[in-house]
Amino acid sequence: MKESTALEMRAKKPARKPHPALAQLAPLAAAGLQWLFWARIRPFYWLLFYPAVFASSWVGGVAGGLIATVLSVLLVLWNFVPREFSVDLHDPRIFVSSGIFLCMGILFSLMQERLRLAHQREDQALADAQSVRDDLEAQVRERSAESSRANELLLESEEAMRLLISEVKHYAIFLLDINGNITSWNEGAQRIEGYSREEILGKHFSIFYSEKERKAGKPERELQEALEKGHYEEEGLRVRKGGGTFRASLVITPIRDKSGKLRGFFKVTNDVTHRKETEQSLRTLAAFVHNSKDFIAVCSPDLETLFVNTAGLRMAGLDSLEEALKTSVMDYFWPEDRALIEERAVPKLLRDGKWRGEVRFRNFKTGEPIHTVWDAFTIRDDTGKTAGYATISPNLERTQQLQNSLSEAEQLLRDTQAGHAGIVSSAMDAIITVNDDQKILAFNAAAEKMFLCSAAQALGQPVSKFIPQRFREGHRLHFRKFGDDGVTGRATGALNPLSALRTNGEEFPIEASISRMETNGSRLFTVIVRDITERFKAEEALRRSDATRRIALESARLAEWQIDLQTGEAQRSPAHDHIFGYKETLPEWNFDIFMKHVHPDDREKIGKSFQECLEQKSKWDFECRIVRQDGAIRWIWACGSHYKDQAGRSTHVMGTVADITDRKHAEEMRVRSQKLEGLGTLAGGISHEFNNILLAIRGNLQLAAGDLPPGHPAQESLVEIGKAATRAADLVRRILVFSRPQELARKSVQLSFLVEEALKLLRATTPANIEFRTVFAESLPPVMADATQLHQVIVNLAVNGAHAIGSHGGMLEFSLSRVQVQNGGGPGHGGPSRGQLRPIVREGHGMRNGPPHPRSDLRSLLHHQGAGRSHGPRTFRGPRHRHQSRRLHPRL
Prior knowledge:
- The chain is α+β, with helices and mostly antiparallel strands.
- It is 50% helix and 21% strand.
- It contains 28 helices and 25 strands.
- Helix 25 (751-765) crosses helix 26.
- 20% of the residues are buried.
């Protein structure tokens, strides 16, 4: 109450007005005071003028504040700034302080003006609020009086509504609490739902729903939707007492109090079963009338046209119903028939309620008569009073046309059936028709031949008779499923052929397709069966042929390929990719991928040959090198030809490919062998000629030695000449051994003596920077060998070693030791004791320092490139091969 009084007083307080003239007293007073105390406050020129300008802006507003600011600046500059009583200024600080003072004065003026305006708006708002408050208090007093009157009326209306609801018999009206339990019940609800008031009160309203709807939560969803949308409407089936159902139209509305709190639900249900049936009947009748080809019309008791259907408008030559409504009933009849209608038809129609007879209608467009049967009858209301007349009049000419068309269709059907019967009887496949019980109704000639059973014997029998016993249950289930799933046709046995049974007990493979049709309310199934025995045999032969081909290719180590000339893609066997070094088959292959594997030196040749193959449609046959996936270089041979389609167009190039690397190596070895044979033949011829020369030398040497007396100085020279001739003869014999096999002259030989003798010759013929060294084991047994060939081996090994060492110098070591060898001839475990010859090369060219492995060093001597002599390996391997089964075992 105190706040209200203060608000009223503040609203009534007058607004403050600015006084610009009065505001100028403040700067004048400030100037006077500053003049009196100037000696103490010097040199603070603006000390008293700042509050003076602030007070001026408060009293005088914007204008008063600005004037006071300018007046203050003039007073300061004239009275207090040296020189006094002059505006002759020299100090720039005066300008700066004056500018600051002007800005502050302007700022004070603007701020005071904004404050003044804000106070004015606040005062106005308070006045408006007081006015609104007064209006609201008046409205509250008025509404309170109205609420009292409304409460009285509400009580009266509630009592009237209760009485009204209880007396309503065509609608079920009742209340639900917030949980959906029934709290009220009227007579209409009892009549529609079948429950009495005592039976239903307190029950949940889901009792009116089916079990399926209750489990799905439909009643709760309806209440939730009513809360969200403000109401819920639906038409659907509901359950009444006893389990019967009816079609209901219902509305559920939430009930809330003044505060908006939910108090319950108001539900109204109407039984619309009869209405729906009537609407359906009317829709059916309307569809019949609309789609009927007969003239259908309705007229009033006064014979005024009320309705004509589309066929009637077309028959009468009218364009619209409006035009028909303007036409009298008698105008529809042919003029010559109107007397018959007026004298005979109308009186009988009025008396008996119906009349039927042949008359003619008139076509208003063509003016021609239309022959029809006018079938008229009376329409009466519920009281039996005549409400109008109706007619259904068929066009006799059109009926005659339909009968003719029907006769033609029946004839066409008979012809079609005859043709169908001819097709079925002459079909190459078995055609069998069965009913729902799988009893055979039709069995054509091909079926008789296939199953070795006549049609007379098959008709009426179950079709399972021709199915093997183990498949009959599965066939029965499949047949039932096909009949229920709604499919009208299906092929079976396309992927996994079925089996059928002839009457002689023979099983055979088949493919079958089944179709379904319905006639006169029953279902018929037609099965078309094809015997695929011969195709199975052909496929099996093809599989055997393909397997034979694959085995042949694998045996020949060939891989197959084919290139599609349209897409460039290649199909090939797994062995194809194995040739190119792939362990797994690549996802794709084409000519470009192949060319990437071809050796760079062969790509141009292969590209040209393939282009010639495509242009000339010729055979593609080539050999080339390829670089495998692992980097190895291999030789391949490929051969392919063109494949042409039925039109003669070349569509593919297909052929085989093989790895011929081993064959290429074999060819190289054969060529080398041929060269060596030629060299051996040449060496043999030279040896024979040289042997003849040595024979003459040795003969003359013996003669000369016999002619000279013993102790002659020349005897010593002749002995040396004889030794050289003997060595030359041995060399010739070694050449002959190299050129062709000879019998070995095996005898017991002491290897140590043989090595020492060979080294004596070598020391005289090898460079001085090469040192020879021997390491012999004690008590070495003799060996059975050809001493000449062993001498040849030692000499050639030493010569090759010397050439390998070269000018750098080094040491050649020969060692003899005892080793245990296996029965297979290699050193190792057990076996007889055998000698071992170990040539060791130290510090030689291309050789490693330190004690090397005998096998590796000997091979180095035999195969070192750029050093040694080419005949070393052959002259060593020949004797080794011929002595490997004896007691001599040179270890490689």
